[in-house]
Design brief:
With about 200 residues, the chain is α+β, with helices and mostly antiparallel strands.
Protein backbone atom coordinates (compact mmCIF):
# COMPACT_ATOMS: atom_id res chain seq x y z
CA UNK A 1 0.00 0.00 0.00
CA UNK A 2 1.36 3.43 -0.88
CA UNK A 3 1.25 6.24 1.65
CA UNK A 4 0.78 9.70 0.17
CA UNK A 5 2.77 12.77 1.12
CA UNK A 6 -0.55 14.48 1.93
CA UNK A 7 -1.38 11.79 4.52
CA UNK A 8 2.04 12.16 6.10
CA UNK A 9 1.75 15.95 6.21
CA UNK A 10 -1.75 15.82 7.68
CA UNK A 11 -0.75 13.40 10.42
CA UNK A 12 2.46 15.32 11.20
CA UNK A 13 0.51 18.57 11.53
CA UNK A 14 -1.96 16.87 13.84
CA UNK A 15 0.57 15.09 16.08
CA UNK A 16 3.93 16.81 15.70
CA UNK A 17 5.58 13.38 15.32
CA UNK A 18 8.62 12.79 13.15
CA UNK A 19 8.26 11.72 9.51
CA UNK A 20 9.54 8.18 10.12
CA UNK A 21 7.13 7.69 13.05
CA UNK A 22 4.21 9.01 11.00
CA UNK A 23 5.07 6.83 8.01
CA UNK A 24 5.41 3.71 10.18
CA UNK A 25 2.09 4.43 11.92
CA UNK A 26 0.34 4.87 8.56
CA UNK A 27 1.86 1.63 7.27
CA UNK A 28 0.84 -0.25 10.43
CA UNK A 29 -2.68 1.20 10.11
CA UNK A 30 -2.82 0.32 6.38
CA UNK A 31 -3.36 3.97 5.42
CA UNK A 32 -6.20 4.61 7.90
CA UNK A 33 -5.55 8.12 9.32
CA UNK A 34 -7.65 7.64 12.46
CA UNK A 35 -5.98 4.35 13.38
CA UNK A 36 -2.54 5.84 12.66
CA UNK A 37 -3.38 8.85 14.83
CA UNK A 38 -4.30 6.54 17.73
CA UNK A 39 -1.05 4.59 17.30
CA UNK A 40 0.97 7.81 17.36
CA UNK A 41 -1.02 9.16 20.30
CA UNK A 42 -0.08 6.09 22.31
CA UNK A 43 3.55 6.43 21.26
CA UNK A 44 3.71 10.18 21.91
CA UNK A 45 2.01 9.67 25.24
CA UNK A 46 4.75 7.34 26.44
CA UNK A 47 7.43 9.69 25.12
CA UNK A 48 5.66 12.49 26.97
CA UNK A 49 5.99 10.55 30.23
CA UNK A 50 9.75 10.32 29.70
CA UNK A 51 9.89 14.06 28.99
CA UNK A 52 7.83 14.90 32.10
CA UNK A 53 10.82 14.27 34.36
CA UNK A 54 13.06 16.72 32.50
CA UNK A 55 13.58 20.18 33.98
CA UNK A 56 11.80 23.17 32.46
CA UNK A 57 14.04 26.26 32.62
CA UNK A 58 12.64 28.40 29.80
CA UNK A 59 9.20 29.54 28.72
CA UNK A 60 7.04 32.59 28.44
CA UNK A 61 3.92 34.26 29.72
CA UNK A 62 0.98 34.05 27.34
CA UNK A 63 -1.55 36.83 27.50
CA UNK A 64 -5.00 37.51 26.18
CA UNK A 65 -7.17 40.62 26.53
CA UNK A 66 -10.74 40.26 25.33
CA UNK A 67 -11.94 42.77 22.72
CA UNK A 68 -14.10 44.62 25.28
CA UNK A 69 -10.98 45.35 27.33
CA UNK A 70 -12.70 44.19 30.53
CA UNK A 71 -11.43 40.61 30.77
CA UNK A 72 -7.84 39.37 30.50
CA UNK A 73 -5.64 36.45 31.49
CA UNK A 74 -1.96 35.61 31.88
CA UNK A 75 -0.65 32.04 31.73
CA UNK A 76 2.90 31.03 32.65
CA UNK A 77 4.05 28.19 30.36
CA UNK A 78 7.42 26.49 30.81
CA UNK A 79 9.53 24.48 28.37
CA UNK A 80 13.08 23.14 28.44
CA UNK A 81 14.91 25.48 26.05
CA UNK A 82 14.86 29.05 24.77
CA UNK A 83 14.76 27.62 21.27
CA UNK A 84 11.25 26.26 21.86
CA UNK A 85 10.20 29.32 23.91
CA UNK A 86 10.92 31.52 20.88
CA UNK A 87 9.03 29.23 18.50
CA UNK A 88 5.89 30.93 17.09
CA UNK A 89 3.91 27.72 17.71
CA UNK A 90 4.83 27.80 21.40
CA UNK A 91 3.86 31.46 21.57
CA UNK A 92 0.52 30.59 19.98
CA UNK A 93 -0.02 27.79 22.53
CA UNK A 94 0.58 30.20 25.43
CA UNK A 95 -1.79 32.77 23.87
CA UNK A 96 -4.49 30.13 23.30
CA UNK A 97 -4.17 28.91 26.89
CA UNK A 98 -4.61 32.49 28.13
CA UNK A 99 -7.66 32.88 25.88
CA UNK A 100 -9.04 29.66 27.37
CA UNK A 101 -8.61 31.02 30.91
CA UNK A 102 -10.40 34.22 29.91
CA UNK A 103 -13.35 32.33 28.44
CA UNK A 104 -13.71 29.36 30.81
CA UNK A 105 -12.91 30.95 34.21
CA UNK A 106 -11.02 28.06 35.84
CA UNK A 107 -10.42 28.31 39.58
CA UNK A 108 -7.92 25.49 40.15
CA UNK A 109 -5.00 24.23 38.05
CA UNK A 110 -6.23 20.64 38.36
CA UNK A 111 -8.56 18.57 40.52
CA UNK A 112 -5.51 17.63 42.63
CA UNK A 113 -5.11 21.31 43.53
CA UNK A 114 -8.53 21.68 45.14
CA UNK A 115 -7.94 22.65 48.81
CA UNK A 116 -8.69 19.69 51.13
CA UNK A 117 -11.21 21.65 53.20
CA UNK A 118 -13.19 22.59 50.09
CA UNK A 119 -13.03 18.97 48.87
CA UNK A 120 -14.30 17.68 52.22
CA UNK A 121 -17.12 20.26 52.35
CA UNK A 122 -18.40 19.22 48.94
CA UNK A 123 -17.89 15.54 49.75
CA UNK A 124 -20.08 15.88 52.87
CA UNK A 125 -22.75 17.69 50.84
CA UNK A 126 -22.74 15.02 48.12
CA UNK A 127 -22.81 12.24 50.72
CA UNK A 128 -25.99 13.72 52.22
CA UNK A 129 -27.55 13.86 48.75
CA UNK A 130 -26.47 10.28 47.99
CA UNK A 131 -27.92 8.94 51.25
CA UNK A 132 -31.35 10.23 50.20
CA UNK A 133 -31.19 7.96 47.13
CA UNK A 134 -31.60 4.84 49.31
CA UNK A 135 -28.66 3.08 47.62
CA UNK A 136 -26.53 0.36 49.26
CA UNK A 137 -23.67 1.78 51.38
CA UNK A 138 -21.00 0.27 49.07
CA UNK A 139 -22.44 2.29 46.15
CA UNK A 140 -22.47 5.59 48.05
CA UNK A 141 -18.68 6.12 47.75
CA UNK A 142 -18.78 5.61 43.97
CA UNK A 143 -21.73 7.99 43.63
CA UNK A 144 -19.98 10.65 45.73
CA UNK A 145 -16.69 10.21 43.81
CA UNK A 146 -18.54 10.67 40.52
CA UNK A 147 -20.30 13.80 41.80
CA UNK A 148 -17.03 15.27 43.10
CA UNK A 149 -15.36 14.69 39.74
CA UNK A 150 -18.32 16.19 37.87
CA UNK A 151 -18.30 19.22 40.19
CA UNK A 152 -14.56 20.02 40.26
CA UNK A 153 -13.42 19.10 36.72
CA UNK A 154 -15.23 22.03 35.06
CA UNK A 155 -13.50 24.35 37.56
CA UNK A 156 -10.03 22.87 36.94
CA UNK A 157 -7.95 24.34 34.12
CA UNK A 158 -6.16 21.18 32.95
CA UNK A 159 -9.34 19.06 33.06
CA UNK A 160 -11.54 21.57 31.19
CA UNK A 161 -12.50 20.98 27.58
CA UNK A 162 -10.23 23.22 25.50
CA UNK A 163 -12.08 26.25 24.19
CA UNK A 164 -10.57 26.00 20.69
CA UNK A 165 -11.09 22.25 20.28
CA UNK A 166 -14.13 20.80 21.97
CA UNK A 167 -12.92 17.22 21.65
CA UNK A 168 -9.82 17.65 23.85
CA UNK A 169 -9.04 18.62 27.40
CA UNK A 170 -6.44 21.33 28.09
CA UNK A 171 -4.02 18.72 29.46
CA UNK A 172 -4.24 16.80 26.16
CA UNK A 173 -3.45 20.00 24.23
CA UNK A 174 -0.38 20.62 26.43
CA UNK A 175 0.75 16.97 26.05
CA UNK A 176 0.35 17.14 22.27
CA UNK A 177 2.45 20.31 22.23
CA UNK A 178 5.06 18.49 24.30
CA UNK A 179 5.15 15.76 21.65
CA UNK A 180 5.22 18.26 18.80
CA UNK A 181 8.11 20.29 20.27
CA UNK A 182 9.93 17.28 21.74
CA UNK A 183 10.24 18.94 25.14
CA UNK A 184 8.60 18.83 28.53
CA UNK A 185 5.96 21.57 28.61
CA UNK A 186 4.21 22.60 31.80
CA UNK A 187 1.64 25.21 32.70
CA UNK A 188 2.84 26.66 35.98
CA UNK A 189 0.10 29.15 36.89
CA UNK A 190 -2.59 31.41 35.53
CA UNK A 191 -4.30 34.65 36.50
CA UNK A 192 -7.66 35.93 35.26
CA UNK A 193 -8.73 39.55 35.65
CA UNK A 194 -12.21 40.95 35.06
CA UNK A 195 -13.73 44.37 35.57
Amino acid sequence: MSISAQQIKELRDKTGAGISDVKKALEDAKGNLEAAFKLLERKLGSASLKRASRETKAGLIGSYVHSNGRVAALVEVFCETDFVARNPGFNELAHDLAMHVTAMKPIFMSVKDVPPEEWQTEKARFMEEAKKMNKPPEMLENIVDGKLKAYFEPLSFLEQTFVKGQDKKVLEVVNEASGRFGENIKVNKFVRLEI
